[in-house]
Write a structure and sequence with these properties.
Largest sheet: 5 strands, mixed
Strand content: 25-35%
Strand order of the largest sheet: 3-2-1-4-5
Length: 110
């Protein structure tokens, strides 16, 4: 997700600390936005200071990352549960841009 984020626009959001829980795998992740960039790390449990909590499945997270599924649509469908500062989390995912992941690195001279 970090490479797809509009960093200049994300900078205006300030800092946001999110606790992600993947209920099907039992994973807990700390995702933090600071200085217009996202940082993610695995954690044992919810750390103090989270602005928001995001609860979903690994498959839903893979839909966002791999397929480009709309975060807001997944929230509205109930596939993602938000608690805390939901408005900032929704704003953050509104800044994710899509681009072609598969492109020729080297092309022949034409």
């Amino acid at each position: 997700l970090s490479i797809c984020l509009d960093g200049a626009s994300a900078l205006a959001l300030g800092t946001c600390r999110m606790h992600w829980t993947l209920i099907d795998t039992g994973e807990s992740l700390r995702v933090e936005l600071s200085n217009g960039t996202l940082h993610t790390r695995a954690i044992e449990s919810d750390e103090a200071g989270s602005d928001a909590s995001v609860t979903t499945t690994r498959a839903t997270l893979e839909e966002i990352v791999g397929v480009g599924a709309a975060f807001a649509d997944l929230c509205d469908s109930g596939a993602i549960e938000l608690a805390g500062d939901a408005a900032t989390v929704r704003s953050l995912f509104g800044l994710v841009q899509s681009f072609n992941l598969f492109f020729p690195i080297i092309e022949p001279v034409r």
